[in-house]
Write a structure and sequence with these properties.
2 domains; methyltransferase; alpha/beta; Rossmann fold; 7-stranded mixed β-sheet; 3-stranded antiparallel β-sheet; Chemotaxis protein methyltransferase
Length: 289
Amino acid sequence: MTAMERGYEEQSESAGSKQELEQIEIELLLNGVHRLYGYDFRNYALPSLKRRIWHHVHAENVPSISALQEKVLHDRACFERFVYSLSIPVTEMFRDPGLFLTFRQKVIPLLRTYPYIRIWHAGCSTGEEVYSMAILLHEEGLYDKARIYATDMNARSLQQAKEGVYEISKMKQYTKNYMEAGGTRAFSEYYTAKYNSVILQPYLRKNIIFAEHNLATDTSFNEFNVIFCRNVMIYFNDELRDHVHGLFHESLSRFGVLVLGSKESIHFTRFSDSYEPLDRVEKIYRKNQ
C-alpha cells in the first residue's frame, strides 16, 4: 500500500468515526429529551433533523451536540428554544389556494349534510391555516355549527395562533391567496390594521380550541369529520408516519375527510385501502371504512 493509499484509508476511517460519534450524540440527545420532557423526536427523518440540530448548536453557541444535550437537559428555556427550532413554522393564510378552492367545491357540500362539524388541524403552527378555514366556513354559512381543534407541540407557535396577530407586510400575499381560493369578500374585512401588524377579527376565534398535542406521543382525543395535516409528516420517518396515519384513521368518523400536504400521500401506508380520493391532485381523501 502506498503512502497516498494509506492517507485515503485513514481519512475514510476518520470520517466514519466522526459520523458514528455524531449519530451517538444525536441518539443520546433525543433519548434525554424524551425521558426528561416527554417529547419524542427519535423517529423524525434523520437528514432534516440533523441539519436543525446543528443549526441549534450554533445558535446556542456551544461546541458540540453533547454540549447542547447538557444545556437542554439543565435549562428549561434552552429546551423550549430547542423544540421551537425543530418545529420551525412554515405557513401562510390560504397556502396553496387551489386546495382551499377544491375544499369549497368538493368537501363543503358534504359538510352541509352534518348537524355538527368537527375539524382537527394537526400541527397547526402559528394558526394561519386554521383561520383560513374559519373564514371559509364563515363564508359558506357553516361556522356556527363547526368546532375547530387546532393543535401543535410548539407552545410558542400556539400562543401566536391564539393571539391572531400577524405582520401587515404579509397581507398582500394573503389577499392574493384568498382571492385564488374562491374568497367572496374583501379580505381586509377579516382584520384590523395596527402599526406594523394586523389583528384578525375576534369572531373568527370563537369556535376554535387551541391545545398542545404531540403526534408522536399523544393519542386520539375526539372523532372528527375533517382532519388537516399538511406538510408535517414529511419530517417523519416511515415508522412515525405509519403511527400518525393510524392515529388519524382512528380519529376520523366514517366518511370523514383527510387532507394532506402536496408532498404527502395515503398510498404505501397500511391504511391506503381505507380511503378513496376526493381529489388526487390536492391530496384530499375520504374514509370509506
